[in-house]
Prior knowledge:
Elements: E1 29-36, E2 43-44, E3 52-54, H1 59-68, E4 73-79, H2 96-107, E5 111-116, H3 144-161, E6 165-168, H4 175-185, E7 194-199, H5 206-211, H6 232-243, E8 248-252, H7 258-267, E9 272-276, H8 278-289, H9 295-309, E10 313-316, H10 319-325
Helix pairs in contact: 2-3, 3-4
The structure holds ligand PBG.
The site of ligand PBG has 12 residues, from helix 5.
EC number: 4.2.1.24
Pathway: Porphyrin-containing compound metabolism; protoporphyrin-IX biosynthesis; coproporphyrinogen-III from 5-aminolevulinate: step 1/4
Keywords: Heme biosynthesis, Lyase, Porphyrin biosynthesis
Amino acid sequence: xxxxxxxxxxxxxxxxxxxxxxxxxxxxxxxxxxxxxxxxxxxxxxxxxxxxxxxxxxxxxxxxxxxxxxxxxxxxxxxxxxxxxxxxxxxxxxxxxxxxxxxxxxxxxxxxxxxxxxxxxxxxxxxxxxxxxxxxxxxxxxxxxxxxxxxxxxxxxxxxxxxxxxxxxxxxxxxxxxxxxxxxxxxxxxxxxxxxxxxxxxxxxxxxxxxxxxxxxxxxxxxxxxxxxxxxxxxxxxxxxxxxxxxxxxxxxxxxxxxxxxxxxxxxxxxxxxxxxxxxxxxxxxxxxxxxxxxxxxxxxxxxxxxxxxxxxxxxxxxxxxxxxx
Length: 326
Ligand code: PBG
């Protein structure tokens, strides 16, 4: 045998790390944190082992735990004390995310990103204002344009509380433009927007809906989140957000959508974020529990794949565990 090309030569210890093409580091990661106004104590999230909902009084402590692992950024999700038709607690000055943001930004150096959506705050669990007959007519869900103002108010209230970046996740057409306008008008032109630009209607959000108590009370999100069948449409969605002023472009979920991560990376120059969602976390944990997978290795390999596909940053429930092992 006389093979001239032997890639295995570069897999030897000593050289393999020199030629490695992709790196995963703690500074790539954002850790989601759930703050719950309905509890005085930490409540474990059953579907997401190792994660908890924490009361506002423990938000700082929780974020400090994240920082200790080397992860420098968190994404705050809120569970409000009460819900109503329009989700008014989403933009309340004394709302759960606003309160937690104030405390965390005052007490820590964490980079604080806030999720901007209404589904945790509305009694019906949808991501916006409902059409009149949405409950009985399956062809109806949220009113797009009437939701924009509420999202903008929510984002501004987060910025007022000190949020470093806002991340709208409701898949409302025009949400980035409306939020940009709101932020600029209120003097927050320095607060960037990380848009959930290509967010699919995915079965992989199941565990999160438990965690954040944001499952729709009826129907589903297929009229506003993207059809998993579509890739070209994702480019339209992302282009629209870029035009409206998005600073970071997110693809969600990550693992089943790495083709979309790659396509966004190739088509746009903005930083690309991948959201390694709750179901992706839960399935590795479930398999590891049974002894079928090594949790640490399969988690690290998943995140590396997202970076290899083109993600600059990753939102992941594995952030702390992976960072601690790097
Ligand atoms: C809110 C929101 C959701 C997630 C992030 N922001 C739920 C949804 O769209 O149903 C899902 C995150 C995850 O599954 O980890 N709209």
